[in-house]
Design goal:
Blueprint lengths: L7 E3 L7 H6 L4 E4 L15 H13 L1 E5 L5 H10 L3 E2 L8 H10 L6 E5 L2 H11 L2 E5 L8 H31 L1
Parallel strand pairs: 1-6, 2-3, 2-5, 3-4, 5-6
Bound molecules: magnesium ion (MG).
């Protein structure tokens, strides 16, 4: 089901093809914080991710969109010099819409990047933006997130199986 399917599935934000995004007309990145840029089990941004943020900030308008409400996310956003929409209640669209307004961009010009199907991917798909799902930076997470990850893995596995079955059926019919 398209709602559960990211446009791209990558290991890390550092694997994103920025040239391809630019060519596709993407000008803004709405990026999740916890376990996408900042591992849940530390409060330090990995150096490779920090370098990535510096390079994308030079080419794209970037806004952090986080469901987190703790003061720490404000601090991290400040350290990174990035605007932030916190308490986002993703996958609801309001925070993404606010972030796009802050960046002065339309949804067709934005990509949502994050590590979770039920917040980032579904949120971006509901909104109609490009969605890029990355692997979580750490296995540590909130208990409800860990439970959702099991469901997430099951849904994505079934989606892959359904698509594979459809492709093989199409190949047989050709
Ligand atoms: Mg996350």
């Amino acid at each position: 089901m398209a709602l559960f399917r990211p446009s791209q599935r990558l290991a890390s934000v550092t694997d994103i093809d920025l040239d391809a995004l630019e060519s596709a007309g993407i000008r803004g990145l709405l990026v999740d914080l916890d376990n996408t840029l900042l591992p849940r089990d530390t409060s330090v941004i990995p150096p490779a991710v920090e370098a990535w943020i510096t390079s994308v900030s030079a080419r794209f308008r970037v806004c952090l969109v986080s469901n987190n409400w703790h003061h720490r996310v404000q601090e991290v956003a400040g350290e990174l010099g990035l605007p932030l929409v916190a308490k986002a209640i993703k996958p609801l669209p309001f925070a993404f819409i606010k972030a796009m307004r802050m960046l002065g961009l339309r949804r067709s010009q934005c990509a949502v990047i994050g590590d979770q199907l039920f917040t980032d991917v579904i949120g971006g798909n509901l909104l109609g933006t490009l969605t890029i799902m990355v692997d979580p930076l750490s296995h540590a997470d909130l208990i409800h997130t860990l439970l959702l990850r099991r469901l997430e893995a099951r849904i994505m596995k079934e989606d892959r199986a359904t698509r594979a079955a459809r492709q093989s059926k199409d190949a047989t019919c050709e």
